[in-house]
Amino acid sequence: MHDPILAVAGVSKTYKGGHRALDTVDLEIRRGEIFALLGPNGAGKTTLISTICGIVTPSSGTITVDGHDAITDFKRARAKIGLVPQELSVDMFETVLATVKFSRRLFGRSGHDAYIEELLRDLSLWDKRSAKIMELSGGMKRRVLIAKALSHEPDILFLDEPTAGVDVSLRRDMWKLIGRLRTRGVTIILTTHYIEEAEEMADRVGVITGGKLLLVEEKTALMAKLGKREMDLALVEPMATIPPDLAEWHLSLENEGHTLRYVFDAQAERTGIPSLLRKLGELGITFKDLETSKSSLEDIFVDLVTERRAA
Ligand SMILES: Nc1ncnc2c1ncn2[C@@H]1O[C@H](COP(=O)(O)OP(=O)(O)OP(=O)(O)O)[C@@H](O)[C@H]1O
């Protein structure tokens, strides 16, 4: 890839006690993109972010942040990054404004009151600037974490599970803010359990499970895969084989011939369902029930893992 802003090469992490949380992860992030790291609980998302941010030391591999090695050139690498962690990490007795200004100074940047004010206004925190963190609601505290992460004008922003336990208004503000950051050229990497979240914003999606990065794809390509649906027809009479007249739908027989299954692309203009049902009528094949279901994230993980094993 041409000049990635972030390059992770062969990174593995085995925690004390022997748990291998990351297994030879290779990942390049493009300048200015929004990248969603999708994976179930315990997949290794937080561990991957933590190694990039220098919080966790990888057992092997290298990480380069805009040309700076994340370990040997930690300070410069870290200064490029803003991290919104999953858990609260703020001084409860400080005020909002002092917290955010302090965070900026930590990265060696001089004061820039106009920037801080705009940031706090963007996050609806300006009116609360003199309040102590402990006086804020949970949602407001989350906003402070975002303001802190952006205090030093980083080029890369990590959002670890940004919308877990977050109310609708914060969610909306967050998406708006992300949109504005993107127009300024900030690269954004977020972790999520939710396909919908990746779908809403990301340019590319990486799927991680069991510490392995299974795939990285343009969102549109992945969504096409995720858009598959199944239609199950419960037959009145079980079938031994599929009649050749039905070949074009690539059906399968399940449930010992009692169920006829059609897999189709939910996003396609023509699903093929009306013509299939017509054909079944012509052939005198009757069914007592019809059920459609969408592939779940779980199915997709299973498919990916199986495909990978088969490859
Ligand atoms: N400090 C640690 N010591 C030992 N094991 C750890 C440590 N941190 C995480 N793990 C383990 O490593 C694995 C990956 O954890 P990680 O937090 O990276 O997953 P995640 O994808 O972020 O999960 P979640 O979606 O639940 O936040 C888990 O099995 C976890 O129990």
TrEMBL record:
Residue ranges crossing the lipid bilayer per the database entry: none
Superkingdom, taxonomy of origin: Bacteria
A GO molecular-function annotation: ATP hydrolysis activity
Keywords for this protein: ATP-binding, Nucleotide-binding, Transport
Pfam families assigned to the protein according to its UniProt record, in alphabetical order: ABC_tran
ABC transporter domain span: 6-235
Record keyword Cytoplasm present: no
PANTHER family in alphabetical order: ABC TRANSPORTER ATP-BINDING PROTEIN
This protein's name: ABC-2 type transport system ATP-binding protein
Organism: Sphingomonas guangdongensis
